Amino acid sequence: MSDIKKPTILLSNDDGIHAKGINSIIPLLREYGNLIVVAPEQGQSAQSHAITIKEPLFLKKIHEEEGLTKYVCSGTSVDCVKMALNNILSEKPDYVVSGINHGTNAAISVIYSGTMAAAIEAHIHGIPSIGFSVVDYSEDADFTASVHFARIILDQLIPSRESGFCFNVNVPKGSIDSIHGIKVGRQARSSWVESFEKRTNPAKKDYYWLTGHFINFEPDAVDTDDWALRNGYVSIVPVQADFTAHHQVTEYKHLETKVLNHSSK
Amino acid sequence: MSDIKKPTILLSNDDGIHAKGINSIIPLLREYGNLIVVAPEQGQSAQSHAITIKEPLFLKKIHEEEGLTKYVCSGTSVDCVKMALNNILSEKPDYVVSGINHGTNAAISVIYSGTMAAAIEAHIHGIPSIGFSVVDYSEDADFTASVHFARIILDQLIPSRESGFCFNVNVPKGSIDSIHGIKVGRQARSSWVESFEKRTNPAKKDYYWLTGHFINFEPDAVDTDDWALRNGYVSIVPVQADFTAHHQVTEYKHLETKVLNHSSK
């Protein structure tokens, strides 16, 4: 691949510019093209698709060398993508990659994830995108297997200039050899059930820390991301940004007719 | 309806407890049941499905009378719902209502909206829910038509104990008479295109304010929410929390087989 034809890849995450996960995937992505990193200055985990509208945003270039430029942004993961598209890049990047996230973004966790929000924001703008996460929340998580499988997946997408996808990729915790392969499936129906921890501060005021545990409503569904991860597979879920419950649009059409009657009341 | 059988309704929003929108719908919702309001202390617009995990949450009861209790929460709209379910209510509420939001949450705006995130969070927990928004961002927006149509919609849902829905309801700006009726449809394919406003602070540091304009990729699609609103109809979109692009799961199955080959490399 000649330099002229190298794709431009934008990389973001939600754990922040200093996280081990994002820095683990930089060398791999540089093999595929020119890499622009725009990541949050501070962790933005669980900030979902939030954007910053009440405060100004700051952007700072912190590193520049042939094929790699890094910026930090004061905002959320979605702010990073928007800033890159508007204030850094002269044209849309060929791909947006997000992660590697410290912790799973499979099943319902996708809705809370800033990492996946960055990928989905790119998708809304028509840019093929992919978010990577490993099922390990620790700051010092091992990203060896994640990078290994990221290469396998990206090898099938970038050299052939595949487009039109937005993938939520989750990698089990463990060594490369402990992982059985890849499953392409769907988001498991699930929820996080909270169990706030109530404490009292020195001024005798109660406060709460949000904690919770994950519930899969369909643990035996073999076509889901959570099943894949629990059974030692990398999970790929193609995602989209349409919230419509299409099967219900017809079901609730009667709400229209009822209303047409009201004007004659 | 006897008092004993009155449903419990949880109300939240993203404009905060003092917004005109949430206070406009309280009298209406009290007609249907016992109302618990748990709303953010400060505005949480565009905070999407963000949850607060790096800071503790505070919750304060600020009002109590027969059939109406109000709390403020220091967190996001989704935090409010989680707090209500875990630390206020002894059992799940019968309905969760969110809004009335100052500004549209139709089309792609649903993904940024804290108001809709509160409704969707309820839906994830199996609680029927509905978010109301009016296409008017002003603090002093007129909610007369919104409340009028909210009544028409809720009259068809709550007395008959309808369940299984999560609705994104948007009401055009204007008087009741200027609105032609209700359309049940789908989310329009669309995006917000940003145009950051760059400024320089007194310390000569550049900063950016996020602004943007809305683009509908299918302006003539009559079955979409944006079409309904532009043509003087209230829009109802049934929503869900599944991000899977189901039509692509089969399309990308080949990523599985390619990987199975890798182990023999």
Summary?
2 copies of one chain form a homodimer. With 265 residues, chain A is of the alpha/beta class.
What is the oligomeric state here?
homodimer
What is the helix fraction of residues of chain A, given as a range?
25-40%
CATH architecture of chain A: 3-Layer(aba) Sandwich
User: What is the helix/strand order of chain A?
Assistant: EHEEEHEHEHEEEEEEHEHH
Please provide a written account of the structure:
The structure is a homodimer of 265-residue chains. Chain A is 26% helix and 28% strand. Chain A is α/β, with parallel strands linked by helices and 265 residues long. Chain A has one domain: Stationary-phase Survival Protein Sure Homolog, Chain: A, CATH 3.40.1210.10. In chain A, the strands form three sheets. In chain A, strands 3-4-2-1-5-6-7-13-8 form a nine-stranded mixed β-sheet, with helices on both faces. A two-stranded antiparallel sheet of chain A has the order 9-12. Chain A has a two-stranded antiparallel ribbon with strand order 10-11. In chain A, helix 2 runs parallel beside helix 3. The longest helix of chain A has 13 residues. The N and C termini of chain A lie far apart (71 Å). The C terminus of chain A is likely disordered. Chains A and B meet through helix 2, helix 3, helix 4, strand 7 and strand 8 of A and helix 2, helix 3, helix 4, strand 7 and strand 8 of B.
